[in-house]
Inverse folding.
Protein backbone atom coordinates (compact mmCIF):
# COMPACT_ATOMS: atom_id res chain seq x y z
CA UNK A 1 0.00 0.00 0.00
CA UNK A 2 1.47 3.35 -1.09
CA UNK A 3 -0.79 5.80 0.76
CA UNK A 4 -0.17 6.16 4.48
CA UNK A 5 -2.99 5.40 6.91
CA UNK A 6 -3.44 7.44 10.08
CA UNK A 7 -4.44 4.95 12.81
CA UNK A 8 -5.52 5.93 16.31
CA UNK A 9 -5.05 3.18 18.94
CA UNK A 10 -7.34 3.60 21.96
CA UNK A 11 -6.98 1.75 25.32
CA UNK A 12 -4.08 -0.59 24.49
CA UNK A 13 -1.07 -1.34 26.63
CA UNK A 14 2.24 -0.42 25.06
CA UNK A 15 3.06 -4.09 24.40
CA UNK A 16 -0.26 -4.72 22.61
CA UNK A 17 0.15 -1.53 20.60
CA UNK A 18 3.63 -2.66 19.49
CA UNK A 19 2.18 -6.01 18.41
CA UNK A 20 -0.41 -4.31 16.26
CA UNK A 21 2.18 -2.02 14.70
CA UNK A 22 4.39 -5.00 13.89
CA UNK A 23 1.50 -6.74 12.15
CA UNK A 24 1.05 -3.69 9.95
CA UNK A 25 4.76 -3.50 9.20
CA UNK A 26 4.98 -7.18 8.32
CA UNK A 27 2.06 -6.83 5.94
CA UNK A 28 3.61 -3.79 4.19
CA UNK A 29 0.88 -1.49 5.40
CA UNK A 30 2.10 2.09 5.22
CA UNK A 31 0.85 3.84 8.36
CA UNK A 32 1.44 6.25 11.20
CA UNK A 33 -0.19 5.75 14.59
CA UNK A 34 -0.74 7.21 18.02
CA UNK A 35 -1.73 5.54 21.28
CA UNK A 36 -4.19 7.17 23.72
CA UNK A 37 -5.36 5.63 26.98
CA UNK A 38 -8.62 7.35 27.89
CA UNK A 39 -11.83 8.57 26.30
CA UNK A 40 -10.95 12.19 27.10
CA UNK A 41 -7.62 11.75 25.31
CA UNK A 42 -9.56 10.26 22.39
CA UNK A 43 -11.85 13.32 22.21
CA UNK A 44 -8.88 15.67 22.31
CA UNK A 45 -7.06 13.79 19.56
CA UNK A 46 -10.07 13.26 17.27
CA UNK A 47 -10.84 16.99 17.33
CA UNK A 48 -7.22 17.94 16.70
CA UNK A 49 -6.24 15.61 13.88
CA UNK A 50 -7.72 13.61 11.01
CA UNK A 51 -7.64 9.85 11.54
CA UNK A 52 -8.47 7.22 8.94
CA UNK A 53 -9.08 4.26 11.27
CA UNK A 54 -9.68 3.82 15.02
CA UNK A 55 -8.79 0.55 16.81
CA UNK A 56 -10.27 0.43 20.32
CA UNK A 57 -9.56 -2.12 23.09
CA UNK A 58 -12.86 -3.13 24.65
CA UNK A 59 -11.19 -5.10 27.45
CA UNK A 60 -9.35 -2.20 29.07
CA UNK A 61 -11.99 0.53 28.56
CA UNK A 62 -15.43 -0.99 28.12
CA UNK A 63 -17.32 2.25 28.80
CA UNK A 64 -15.10 4.31 26.52
CA UNK A 65 -15.47 1.96 23.59
CA UNK A 66 -19.28 2.33 23.56
CA UNK A 67 -18.83 6.05 24.04
CA UNK A 68 -16.63 6.20 20.93
CA UNK A 69 -19.34 4.55 18.84
CA UNK A 70 -21.98 6.85 20.34
CA UNK A 71 -19.79 9.84 19.51
CA UNK A 72 -19.77 8.97 15.83
CA UNK A 73 -23.38 7.82 15.57
CA UNK A 74 -25.05 10.64 17.47
CA UNK A 75 -22.66 13.46 18.34
CA UNK A 76 -20.60 13.89 15.18
CA UNK A 77 -22.23 12.10 12.28
CA UNK A 78 -20.20 14.07 9.73
CA UNK A 79 -17.09 12.07 10.66
CA UNK A 80 -17.27 8.68 8.97
CA UNK A 81 -14.26 6.98 10.58
CA UNK A 82 -14.36 3.16 10.77
CA UNK A 83 -13.96 1.81 14.35
CA UNK A 84 -12.54 -1.70 14.89
CA UNK A 85 -13.28 -3.21 18.31
CA UNK A 86 -10.71 -5.60 19.83
CA UNK A 87 -11.85 -7.74 22.78
CA UNK A 88 -10.22 -10.32 25.02
CA UNK A 89 -13.45 -12.24 25.57
CA UNK A 90 -15.47 -14.19 23.02
CA UNK A 91 -18.99 -12.92 23.48
CA UNK A 92 -21.28 -13.20 20.46
CA UNK A 93 -23.92 -10.94 21.95
CA UNK A 94 -21.36 -8.29 22.71
CA UNK A 95 -20.02 -8.56 19.15
CA UNK A 96 -23.51 -8.17 17.71
CA UNK A 97 -24.13 -5.16 19.95
CA UNK A 98 -20.92 -3.46 18.83
CA UNK A 99 -21.62 -4.11 15.13
CA UNK A 100 -25.20 -2.91 15.54
CA UNK A 101 -23.91 0.23 17.26
CA UNK A 102 -21.79 1.03 14.17
CA UNK A 103 -18.48 -0.75 14.64
CA UNK A 104 -16.69 -1.61 11.38
CA UNK A 105 -15.50 -4.97 12.73
CA UNK A 106 -15.10 -6.97 15.95
CA UNK A 107 -12.26 -9.38 16.66
CA UNK A 108 -10.58 -11.12 19.55
CA UNK A 109 -7.18 -9.97 20.66
CA UNK A 110 -6.10 -13.60 20.31
CA UNK A 111 -7.09 -13.55 16.61
CA UNK A 112 -5.25 -10.45 15.41
CA UNK A 113 -4.22 -12.39 12.33
CA UNK A 114 -7.48 -10.98 10.85
CA UNK A 115 -6.42 -7.42 11.57
CA UNK A 116 -4.19 -6.89 8.55
CA UNK A 117 -6.76 -8.12 5.93
CA UNK A 118 -9.46 -6.06 7.65
CA UNK A 119 -7.24 -2.96 7.60
CA UNK A 120 -6.42 -3.50 3.91
CA UNK A 121 -10.10 -3.93 3.07
CA UNK A 122 -10.95 -0.86 5.11
CA UNK A 123 -8.21 1.13 3.37
CA UNK A 124 -9.58 0.12 -0.04
CA UNK A 125 -13.07 1.19 0.96
CA UNK A 126 -11.74 4.47 2.30
CA UNK A 127 -9.96 5.07 -0.99
CA UNK A 128 -13.14 4.34 -2.92
CA UNK A 129 -15.16 6.62 -0.62
CA UNK A 130 -12.62 9.40 -1.08
CA UNK A 131 -12.68 9.01 -4.84
CA UNK A 132 -16.47 9.12 -4.82
CA UNK A 133 -16.36 12.16 -2.57
CA UNK A 134 -13.85 13.87 -4.90
CA UNK A 135 -16.00 12.99 -7.88
CA UNK A 136 -19.09 14.34 -6.14
CA UNK A 137 -17.30 17.58 -5.24
CA UNK A 138 -16.08 17.91 -8.81
CA UNK A 139 -19.59 17.33 -10.13
CA UNK A 140 -21.01 19.86 -7.70
CA UNK A 141 -18.45 22.43 -8.79
CA UNK A 142 -19.14 21.70 -12.47
CA UNK A 143 -22.88 21.97 -11.90
CA UNK A 144 -22.40 25.25 -10.03
CA UNK A 145 -20.32 26.63 -12.90
CA UNK A 146 -22.87 25.44 -15.45
CA UNK A 147 -25.77 26.99 -13.53
CA UNK A 148 -23.85 30.25 -13.18
CA UNK A 149 -23.18 30.34 -16.92
CA UNK A 150 -26.73 29.29 -17.81
CA UNK A 151 -28.28 31.92 -15.53
CA UNK A 152 -26.28 34.68 -17.24
CA UNK A 153 -27.04 33.64 -20.81
CA UNK A 154 -29.54 35.85 -22.70
CA UNK A 155 -32.22 33.22 -22.98
CA UNK A 156 -33.43 29.87 -21.65
CA UNK A 157 -31.06 26.88 -21.34
CA UNK A 158 -32.95 23.61 -21.11
CA UNK A 159 -33.05 19.84 -21.33
CA UNK A 160 -36.08 18.40 -23.08
CA UNK A 161 -36.93 14.70 -22.79
CA UNK A 162 -39.29 12.76 -25.01
CA UNK A 163 -39.96 9.46 -23.26
CA UNK A 164 -40.67 6.11 -24.98
CA UNK A 165 -44.34 6.51 -24.09
CA UNK A 166 -44.37 9.84 -26.02
CA UNK A 167 -44.76 11.89 -22.84
CA UNK A 168 -42.42 14.87 -22.37
CA UNK A 169 -40.44 16.42 -19.54
CA UNK A 170 -38.00 19.23 -18.82
CA UNK A 171 -35.28 17.65 -16.63
CA UNK A 172 -33.44 20.99 -16.45
CA UNK A 173 -34.56 24.58 -17.01
CA UNK A 174 -32.37 27.65 -16.35
CA UNK A 175 -33.49 30.74 -14.47
CA UNK A 176 -33.94 32.58 -17.78
CA UNK A 177 -37.32 30.84 -18.13
CA UNK A 178 -38.95 33.49 -15.94
CA UNK A 179 -37.82 36.37 -18.13
CA UNK A 180 -38.65 34.62 -21.41
CA UNK A 181 -41.82 32.68 -20.61
CA UNK A 182 -43.10 34.27 -17.44
CA UNK A 183 -42.89 30.88 -15.68
CA UNK A 184 -40.70 29.54 -12.89
CA UNK A 185 -38.46 26.55 -13.53
CA UNK A 186 -40.59 24.54 -11.12
CA UNK A 187 -43.82 25.39 -12.97
CA UNK A 188 -42.42 24.27 -16.31
CA UNK A 189 -40.92 21.13 -14.77
CA UNK A 190 -44.25 20.14 -13.20
CA UNK A 191 -46.31 21.11 -16.29
CA UNK A 192 -44.06 20.68 -19.37
CA UNK A 193 -47.05 21.15 -21.74
CA UNK A 194 -47.20 24.84 -20.78
CA UNK A 195 -44.48 25.68 -23.28
CA UNK A 196 -46.31 24.07 -26.21
CA UNK A 197 -49.52 25.83 -25.19
CA UNK A 198 -47.76 29.20 -25.60
CA UNK A 199 -46.91 28.53 -29.25
CA UNK A 200 -49.32 30.20 -31.65
CA UNK A 201 -51.52 27.67 -33.47
CA UNK A 202 -50.07 28.51 -36.89
CA UNK A 203 -46.55 27.64 -35.68
CA UNK A 204 -47.33 24.43 -33.77
CA UNK A 205 -47.15 22.25 -36.88
CA UNK A 206 -43.62 23.35 -37.79
CA UNK A 207 -42.57 22.91 -34.13
CA UNK A 208 -43.76 19.27 -34.06
CA UNK A 209 -42.45 18.52 -37.56
CA UNK A 210 -38.94 19.75 -36.85
CA UNK A 211 -38.81 18.03 -33.46
CA UNK A 212 -39.80 14.71 -35.07
CA UNK A 213 -37.22 15.13 -37.84
CA UNK A 214 -34.54 15.80 -35.22
CA UNK A 215 -35.58 12.71 -33.21
CA UNK A 216 -35.62 10.50 -36.29
CA UNK A 217 -32.27 11.57 -37.75
CA UNK A 218 -30.54 12.71 -34.54
CA UNK A 219 -29.97 16.04 -36.23
CA UNK A 220 -29.96 19.50 -34.71
CA UNK A 221 -33.40 20.80 -33.86
CA UNK A 222 -33.70 24.31 -35.28
CA UNK A 223 -37.01 26.12 -35.00
CA UNK A 224 -38.29 29.67 -35.07
CA UNK A 225 -41.80 30.62 -34.12
CA UNK A 226 -44.12 32.88 -32.19
CA UNK A 227 -45.37 32.51 -28.62
CA UNK A 228 -47.79 34.44 -26.47
CA UNK A 229 -46.96 34.61 -22.78
CA UNK A 230 -49.98 34.37 -20.46
CA UNK A 231 -51.09 37.81 -19.39
CA UNK A 232 -49.00 39.52 -22.08
CA UNK A 233 -50.69 40.97 -25.14
CA UNK A 234 -47.47 41.14 -27.14
CA UNK A 235 -46.28 38.27 -29.31
CA UNK A 236 -42.68 37.09 -28.94
CA UNK A 237 -40.51 35.58 -31.64
CA UNK A 238 -38.24 32.85 -30.28
CA UNK A 239 -35.44 30.75 -31.73
CA UNK A 240 -34.92 27.19 -30.44
CA UNK A 241 -31.71 25.23 -31.09
CA UNK A 242 -31.06 21.84 -29.47
CA UNK A 243 -28.91 18.75 -29.98
CA UNK A 244 -30.46 15.28 -29.43
CA UNK A 245 -28.94 12.20 -27.78
CA UNK A 246 -30.17 8.88 -26.48
CA UNK A 247 -31.35 9.11 -22.89
CA UNK A 248 -30.09 6.61 -20.29
CA UNK A 249 -33.69 6.04 -19.20
CA UNK A 250 -34.84 5.52 -22.78
CA UNK A 251 -36.28 8.08 -25.12
CA UNK A 252 -34.48 11.09 -26.60
CA UNK A 253 -32.93 13.95 -24.63
CA UNK A 254 -32.24 17.34 -26.18
CA UNK A 255 -29.78 19.88 -24.76
CA UNK A 256 -30.55 23.33 -26.08
CA UNK A 257 -31.21 27.02 -25.74
CA UNK A 258 -34.17 29.29 -26.53
CA UNK A 259 -33.53 32.95 -27.42
CA UNK A 260 -35.85 35.92 -27.74
CA UNK A 261 -35.41 37.16 -31.33
CA UNK A 262 -38.42 39.48 -31.38
CA UNK A 263 -36.36 42.63 -31.95
CA UNK A 264 -34.41 41.03 -34.80
CA UNK A 265 -37.56 39.62 -36.39
CA UNK A 266 -39.38 42.94 -36.23
CA UNK A 267 -36.35 44.63 -37.77
CA UNK A 268 -36.28 41.94 -40.47
CA UNK A 269 -39.99 42.42 -41.20
CA UNK A 270 -39.53 46.19 -41.24
CA UNK A 271 -36.61 45.83 -43.63
CA UNK A 272 -38.66 43.58 -45.91
CA UNK A 273 -41.50 46.10 -45.86
CA UNK A 274 -39.04 48.89 -46.65
CA UNK A 275 -37.69 46.91 -49.59
CA UNK A 276 -41.22 46.30 -50.83
CA UNK A 277 -42.09 49.99 -50.46
CA UNK A 278 -38.87 50.96 -52.19
CA UNK A 279 -39.70 48.63 -55.08
CA UNK A 280 -43.19 50.12 -55.30
CA UNK A 281 -41.78 53.64 -55.20
CA UNK A 282 -39.20 52.80 -57.84
CA UNK A 283 -41.93 51.41 -60.07
CA UNK A 284 -44.07 54.48 -59.41
CA UNK A 285 -41.21 56.83 -60.22
CA UNK A 286 -40.53 54.90 -63.41
CA UNK A 287 -44.19 55.30 -64.39
CA UNK A 288 -43.97 59.01 -63.58
CA UNK A 289 -40.89 59.34 -65.77
CA UNK A 290 -42.64 57.59 -68.63
CA UNK A 291 -45.71 59.77 -68.09
CA UNK A 292 -43.56 62.90 -68.15
CA UNK A 293 -41.80 61.73 -71.28
CA UNK A 294 -45.16 61.10 -72.98
CA UNK A 295 -46.41 64.49 -71.76
CA UNK A 296 -43.35 66.32 -73.11
CA UNK A 297 -43.47 64.38 -76.37
CA UNK A 298 -47.17 65.26 -76.75
CA UNK A 299 -46.45 68.92 -75.98
CA UNK A 300 -43.65 69.03 -78.51
CA UNK A 301 -45.65 67.17 -81.12
CA UNK A 302 -48.97 68.95 -80.63
CA UNK A 303 -47.86 72.47 -79.77
CA UNK A 304 -44.47 72.99 -81.32
CA UNK A 305 -44.78 70.46 -84.13
CA UNK A 306 -48.30 71.56 -85.09
CA UNK A 307 -47.35 75.22 -84.98
CA UNK A 308 -44.22 74.70 -87.09
CA UNK A 309 -46.37 72.82 -89.62
CA UNK A 310 -48.74 75.81 -89.71
CA UNK A 311 -45.77 78.15 -90.24
CA UNK A 312 -44.58 75.98 -93.08
CA UNK A 313 -48.02 76.15 -94.73
CA UNK A 314 -48.05 79.94 -94.38
CA UNK A 315 -44.61 80.20 -95.90
CA UNK A 316 -45.56 77.85 -98.75
CA UNK A 317 -48.22 80.26 -99.99
CA UNK A 318 -45.68 83.10 -99.89
CA UNK A 319 -43.11 81.38 -102.06
CA UNK A 320 -45.59 80.22 -104.73
CA UNK A 321 -44.25 82.25 -107.71
CA UNK A 322 -46.95 81.07 -110.07
CA UNK A 323 -49.55 83.19 -108.33
CA UNK A 324 -48.92 86.95 -108.18
CA UNK A 325 -49.78 88.44 -104.76
CA UNK A 326 -50.53 91.91 -103.53
CA UNK A 327 -48.28 93.43 -100.81
CA UNK A 328 -51.16 93.29 -98.34
CA UNK A 329 -51.20 89.52 -98.70
CA UNK A 330 -47.57 89.13 -97.64
CA UNK A 331 -48.05 91.57 -94.79
CA UNK A 332 -50.97 89.54 -93.46
CA UNK A 333 -48.94 86.29 -93.78
CA UNK A 334 -45.99 87.86 -91.96
CA UNK A 335 -48.23 88.88 -89.05
CA UNK A 336 -49.72 85.38 -88.95
CA UNK A 337 -46.29 83.76 -89.00
CA UNK A 338 -45.11 86.14 -86.25
CA UNK A 339 -48.01 85.07 -84.03
CA UNK A 340 -47.21 81.41 -84.67
CA UNK A 341 -43.55 81.96 -83.84
CA UNK A 342 -44.54 83.69 -80.57
CA UNK A 343 -46.73 80.71 -79.75
CA UNK A 344 -43.78 78.34 -80.38
CA UNK A 345 -41.60 80.46 -78.13
CA UNK A 346 -44.20 80.37 -75.35
CA UNK A 347 -44.62 76.59 -75.69
CA UNK A 348 -40.85 76.09 -75.62
CA UNK A 349 -40.55 78.27 -72.51
CA UNK A 350 -43.39 76.38 -70.78
CA UNK A 351 -41.88 72.98 -71.54
CA UNK A 352 -38.46 74.21 -70.37
CA UNK A 353 -39.97 75.43 -67.11
CA UNK A 354 -41.52 72.02 -66.53
CA UNK A 355 -38.13 70.35 -67.03
CA UNK A 356 -36.15 72.86 -64.94
CA UNK A 357 -37.63 76.17 -63.89
CA UNK A 358 -35.36 78.96 -64.94
CA UNK A 359 -36.35 80.84 -61.83
CA UNK A 360 -33.93 78.56 -59.91
CA UNK A 361 -31.12 80.52 -61.54
CA UNK A 362 -31.97 83.48 -59.30
CA UNK A 363 -32.01 81.42 -56.09
CA UNK A 364 -34.22 79.21 -53.98
CA UNK A 365 -35.98 82.11 -52.22
CA UNK A 366 -37.21 83.63 -55.51
CA UNK A 367 -38.15 80.15 -56.72
CA UNK A 368 -40.35 79.51 -53.68
CA UNK A 369 -42.06 82.91 -54.07
CA UNK A 370 -42.66 82.21 -57.78
CA UNK A 371 -44.02 78.72 -57.12
CA UNK A 372 -46.35 80.09 -54.44
CA UNK A 373 -47.71 82.76 -56.83
CA UNK A 374 -48.24 80.19 -59.59
CA UNK A 375 -50.09 77.94 -57.10
CA UNK A 376 -52.36 80.82 -56.05
CA UNK A 377 -53.13 81.72 -59.70
CA UNK A 378 -54.06 78.16 -60.63
CA UNK A 379 -56.06 77.23 -57.53
CA UNK A 380 -57.29 80.58 -56.22
CA UNK A 381 -55.89 79.70 -52.78
CA UNK A 382 -53.80 82.35 -51.00
CA UNK A 383 -50.27 81.10 -50.40
CA UNK A 384 -48.32 83.26 -47.95
CA UNK A 385 -44.53 82.92 -47.97
CA UNK A 386 -42.23 84.06 -45.15
CA UNK A 387 -38.46 83.92 -45.63
CA UNK A 388 -36.21 84.94 -42.76
CA UNK A 389 -33.41 85.66 -45.22
CA UNK A 390 -33.52 86.77 -48.83
CA UNK A 391 -30.17 85.15 -49.48
CA UNK A 392 -30.12 81.38 -48.88
CA UNK A 393 -27.31 79.92 -50.97
CA UNK A 394 -27.77 76.26 -51.98
CA UNK A 395 -25.98 74.03 -54.45
CA UNK A 396 -27.90 73.11 -57.61
CA UNK A 397 -28.90 69.63 -56.45
CA UNK A 398 -30.26 70.85 -53.12
CA UNK A 399 -32.04 73.81 -54.69
CA UNK A 400 -33.79 71.57 -57.23
CA UNK A 401 -34.69 69.09 -54.47
CA UNK A 402 -36.24 71.80 -52.25
CA UNK A 403 -38.12 73.21 -55.24
CA UNK A 404 -39.51 69.78 -56.23
CA UNK A 405 -40.44 68.94 -52.65
CA UNK A 406 -42.29 72.24 -52.36
CA UNK A 407 -43.95 71.58 -55.73
CA UNK A 408 -45.06 68.09 -54.67
CA UNK A 409 -46.34 69.41 -51.32
CA UNK A 410 -48.48 72.02 -53.05
CA UNK A 411 -49.74 69.37 -55.47
CA UNK A 412 -50.85 67.20 -52.52
CA UNK A 413 -52.66 70.20 -51.01
CA UNK A 414 -54.45 70.79 -54.31
CA UNK A 415 -55.54 67.15 -54.59
CA UNK A 416 -56.39 66.24 -51.00
CA UNK A 417 -56.40 69.08 -48.47
CA UNK A 418 -59.48 71.12 -49.38
CA UNK A 419 -57.67 74.11 -47.87
CA UNK A 420 -58.51 77.81 -48.12
CA UNK A 421 -55.10 79.17 -47.17
CA UNK A 422 -51.48 77.95 -47.22
CA UNK A 423 -48.61 79.35 -45.17
CA UNK A 424 -44.97 78.72 -46.12
CA UNK A 425 -41.84 79.33 -44.07
CA UNK A 426 -38.33 79.09 -45.57
CA UNK A 427 -35.28 79.58 -43.36
CA UNK A 428 -31.62 78.73 -42.87
CA UNK A 429 -30.89 77.59 -39.29
CA UNK A 430 -27.71 75.98 -37.96
CA UNK A 431 -26.44 75.15 -41.44
CA UNK A 432 -29.75 73.50 -42.34
CA UNK A 433 -32.42 74.67 -44.74
CA UNK A 434 -35.93 74.42 -43.30
CA UNK A 435 -39.11 74.40 -45.35
CA UNK A 436 -42.44 74.33 -43.52
CA UNK A 437 -45.78 74.21 -45.37
CA UNK A 438 -48.99 74.54 -43.34
CA UNK A 439 -52.56 74.40 -44.64
CA UNK A 440 -55.92 74.78 -42.91
CA UNK A 441 -57.56 71.87 -44.74
CA UNK A 442 -59.20 68.71 -43.50
CA UNK A 443 -55.96 67.36 -42.00
CA UNK A 444 -54.08 64.24 -43.03
CA UNK A 445 -54.58 61.10 -40.89
CA UNK A 446 -52.09 58.42 -39.85
CA UNK A 447 -54.01 55.91 -41.97
CA UNK A 448 -53.69 58.11 -45.05
CA UNK A 449 -49.95 58.49 -44.48
CA UNK A 450 -49.54 54.72 -44.29
CA UNK A 451 -51.53 53.94 -47.44
CA UNK A 452 -49.52 51.79 -49.88
CA UNK A 453 -50.23 54.24 -52.70
CA UNK A 454 -49.09 57.36 -50.80
CA UNK A 455 -46.28 57.79 -53.27
CA UNK A 456 -46.18 61.56 -53.00
CA UNK A 457 -45.35 61.51 -49.29
CA UNK A 458 -43.08 58.50 -49.72
CA UNK A 459 -41.23 60.24 -52.56
CA UNK A 460 -40.66 63.36 -50.45
CA UNK A 461 -39.38 61.25 -47.55
CA UNK A 462 -37.03 59.29 -49.83
CA UNK A 463 -35.66 62.49 -51.39
CA UNK A 464 -35.02 63.96 -47.91
CA UNK A 465 -33.25 60.79 -46.75
CA UNK A 466 -31.03 60.81 -49.85
CA UNK A 467 -29.91 64.30 -48.85
CA UNK A 468 -29.33 63.33 -45.21
CA UNK A 469 -32.37 65.24 -44.02
CA UNK A 470 -35.64 64.66 -42.20
CA UNK A 471 -39.28 64.89 -43.23
CA UNK A 472 -42.09 65.18 -40.72
CA UNK A 473 -45.78 65.45 -41.57
CA UNK A 474 -48.58 65.74 -39.03
CA UNK A 475 -52.27 66.43 -39.32
CA UNK A 476 -55.19 67.33 -37.10
CA UNK A 477 -58.66 66.40 -38.28
CA UNK A 478 -60.52 69.51 -39.43
CA UNK A 479 -57.59 71.80 -38.61
CA UNK A 480 -55.07 71.17 -41.35
CA UNK A 481 -51.71 69.59 -42.07
CA UNK A 482 -48.12 70.62 -41.34
CA UNK A 483 -45.16 69.36 -43.40
CA UNK A 484 -41.63 70.14 -42.18
CA UNK A 485 -38.49 69.47 -44.23
CA UNK A 486 -35.04 69.85 -42.69
CA UNK A 487 -31.96 69.18 -44.84
CA UNK A 488 -28.28 69.97 -44.16
CA UNK A 489 -26.90 72.55 -46.58
CA UNK A 490 -23.53 70.83 -46.91
CA UNK A 491 -24.88 67.71 -48.57
CA UNK A 492 -23.66 65.30 -51.19
CA UNK A 493 -24.81 65.63 -54.74
CA UNK A 494 -27.52 63.23 -55.81
CA UNK A 495 -26.09 60.70 -58.22
Amino acid sequence: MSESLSILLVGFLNQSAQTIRKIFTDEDINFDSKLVGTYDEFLHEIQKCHWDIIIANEATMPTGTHAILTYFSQVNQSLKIPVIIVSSESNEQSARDFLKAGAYDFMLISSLVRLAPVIKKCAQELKSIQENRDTQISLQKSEARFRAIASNLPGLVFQFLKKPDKSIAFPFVSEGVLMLLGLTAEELTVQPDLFYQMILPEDQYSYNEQMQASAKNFSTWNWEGKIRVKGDSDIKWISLRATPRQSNQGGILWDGIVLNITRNKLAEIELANSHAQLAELSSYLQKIKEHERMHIAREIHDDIGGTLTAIKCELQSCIDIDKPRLPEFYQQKARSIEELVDYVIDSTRRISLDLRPGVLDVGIVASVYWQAREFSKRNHIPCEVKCESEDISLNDDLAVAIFRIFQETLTNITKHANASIVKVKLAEINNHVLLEVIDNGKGITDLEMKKPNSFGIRGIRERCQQLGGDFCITGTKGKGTSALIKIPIETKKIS
About this structure: The radius of gyration is 50 Å. The mean pLDDT is 83. Residues 262-318 form the longest helix (57 residues). The chain is about 55% helix and 20% strand.
